[in-house]
Design a protein that fits this description.
It is a single chain. With 225 residues, the chain is mainly beta. Helix content is 2%, strand content 38%. The radius of gyration is 16 Å and the shape is globular.
C-alpha cells in the first residue's frame, strides 16, 4: 500500500504532458509545512479579488464575472490565446488579481466536481514556467488521489482529518508568515504553513479537472479573530 506522501503525488496535466511533482526523500519533521497552531494580532485587511485572465493557462476558462474557473481537457490552442508574459505557459494555473503586501486576508473556495486542484498563494512575480507548490515562491494546499497535502518548494506533507469538503477557507497572515487551510464549518485551522513572505503575493489556483469558485472579501471566522 502506498504511503500517505506517495498517495499525495500530484500529476499536473498541461500542454499535452503529464509530470510527477513528488519529491523523493521527504523527511517527516523537517519541513515548515507542519505548523498547525495560529495566534496573531495582525490587523485584518480582507482582500477582495477576481481571477486574473491575463495569468490563466489556455486550458482554464473563467466564469461568473471572473470569480470561478473551469478546466477544459483540450483547452484553447495556445496560439489563439493573447500573448502575455503574465500568463502561465505550461501549467493549469491562474492568479487572483489582488496583490497582497501586508495584513491578514481570508477567502474561501467552493469545489465542484474536481479531484485534482491546488489553492494557496504565490509571489506575484513567480516564474510562469513553474507550477504552484514546486518552488520557493509559492505555497499551496492540494487535493489529489482522494488525499489532501500541503506543498512548497516541491516538498509534500500529508494533511489529515479533512475529508472532501465542498468548501474550504484560506487564511493568509503576511506579517506572521502563515498560510492556513481552514475548516469553514468549524472556523478553525486544519493545517498551516510557516514561511517568511517577501514582496507582493497573489491568491493562486491550480486546477486539472472540474471547477473552483472563489469567495473573497470575507471577514475572518470568529474562531480566528
Amino acid at each position: 500500500m502506498a504511503t500517505p506522501a506517495v498517495a499525495a503525488v500530484r500529476f499536473c496535466r498541461a500542454a499535452g504532458r503529464t509530470v510527477s511533482l513528488l519529491t523523493a526523500g521527504h523527511r517527516r519533521g523537517a519541513s515548515p509545512l507542519q505548523t498547525r497552531g495560529y495566534v496573531s494580532t495582525t490587523p485584518a485587511n480582507d482582500a477582495k479579488f477576481r481571477l486574473d485572465e491575463k495569468t490563466a493557462h489556455s486550458s482554464l476558462d473563467l466564469f461568473k464575472r471572473d470569480t470561478g474557473v473551469i478546466y477544459r481537457i483540450l483547452g484553447l490552442d495556445p496560439s489563439h490565446v493573447q500573448g502575455n508574459p503574465e500568463r502561465f505557459r505550461d501549467w493549469a494555473v491562474v492568479f487572483g488579481d489582488e496583490e497582497i503586501t501586508g495584513g491578514r486576508h481570508y477567502w474561501e473556495v467552493t469545489v465542484k466536481k474536481s479531484q485534482a486542484f491546488r489553492i494557496g498563494a504565490a509571489e506575484a512575480q513567480m516564474c510562469r514556467d513553474e507550477c504552484v507548490g514546486t518552488s520557493s515562491s509559492s505555497w499551496v494546499f492540494g487535493y489529489a488521489q482522494r488525499k489532501w497535502f500541503a506543498m512548497m518548494n516541491n516538498k509534500v506533507v500529508p494533511v489529515t482529518l479533512v475529508g472532501k469538503p465542498d468548501r474550504v477557507g484560506i487564511l493568509l497572515d503576511y506579517e506572521q508568515g502563515v498560510l492556513a487551510l481552514v475548516d469553514t464549518e468549524k472556523g478553525s485551522v486544519i493545517h498551516s504553513i510557516k514561511v517568511s513572505f517577501k514582496g507582493p503575493l497573489c491568491p493562486a489556483f491550480g486546477l486539472w479537472d472540474g471547477e473552483l469558485l472563489t469567495h473573497s472579501g470575507l471577514e475572518l471566522p470568529p474562531g480566528l479573530k
